[in-house]
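User: I'll paste a sequence; please echo it back and then give the predicted structure.

Assistant: Echoing your sequence first, then the prediction.
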Amino acid sequence: MQNPIKLSDYSSGQKIAQGGYQSFSPTLINRQWLIDDPELEALISKAHQKLGELNAFSELIPDVDFFIKMHIAKEATLSSRIEGTQTSMEEAFLRSEDIRPEERDDWQEVQNYIEAMNFAIQSLAELPLSNRLIKSAHEKLLQGVRGAHKQPGEFRRSQNWIGGATINDAVFVPPIHTEIPELMSDLELFLHNEDIFISELVRIAIAHYQFETIHPFLDGNGRTGRLLITLYLVSKNILVRPSLYLSSFFEKHRSLYFNNLSGVRENSDMKQWLKFFMVGVSTIAESSVSTFRKITHLRQATEKIISTAGKKKNNSQKLLDFLFSQPVITAKDVEEALQCSLPTAHSIIKDFIGLNILKEKTVRGRTHVFTFADYIELFEKNEIL
């Protein structure tokens, strides 16, 4: 491991001539980092405090895993949106056949992100967060969508670039592929090096920058790098539930997100990137707590409404519980979830429409779906500062 480095003395790397273009070779990060900025130290402390509040709140909520599913769906739509994909949360819960053919690729990318996140979180019970796990998640991310031919689950074996029609006018050219094994090994060691004494938030912020700079895959680097943040925090028990996702902050401040990453590469300004990251953690943690509170109020209000359902109260409660896990449904979904007849499913849905809990929607001119719109709105409504 290299000698300790002050943030103010950090040098991000160097450009290397590759014959016709220059690639960027980042400095290795598996070393002790010394924080020498009081403002940054205060932001780190605040971010940890807000995460503590989020953890405490998520531990108190019944059926919190239902709401985590919604957080993952939101993360999937927003992380994909940063890459240009346009799928709403409501659409994310539709079936493939209910999506217009021209929008199905975008929809599938969101489904892949949800699958990759769920797979990776479950895998943490048996595997450490490692290059092996990152590759496996990446493979699921690119399965059957644009980029499926670009070596899913494998580090690239050729040069890539960001921006520009060709490599010669690219905005940024990551390191040449022959450097990737050493760089990714260094990143993995950094994530698990117990001899480095820094905040885990600082560690994953630096690791996220490094991952995006290495750009180890031919496609899907942005989504994988953002997924990495939540996985790391869960793996270190900094998050007791996977309830914090920074893509909404990054998407809201997209220009700042990319500019701050570029600022590290071009000006070695790691301090500014870390400050931006810590503000993001605090902001999203606060927003998540607010969302959890509103979910609790919504649940209490809707349970009060259905308490008048009489003989149907049992099925009504079952449907309400189901809606907090699956807020876009068809009558067939209700039939299967409640194990009731199709006429009974239609009857309960009709009651919920009458109570203004569900809204009816026609998809592609044929399929009737029903949405728990107030619930979806809690996640889609942008309250990020």
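The chain has two domains: 2-290, 307-379. The CA atoms of residues 283 and 385 lie 7 Å apart.
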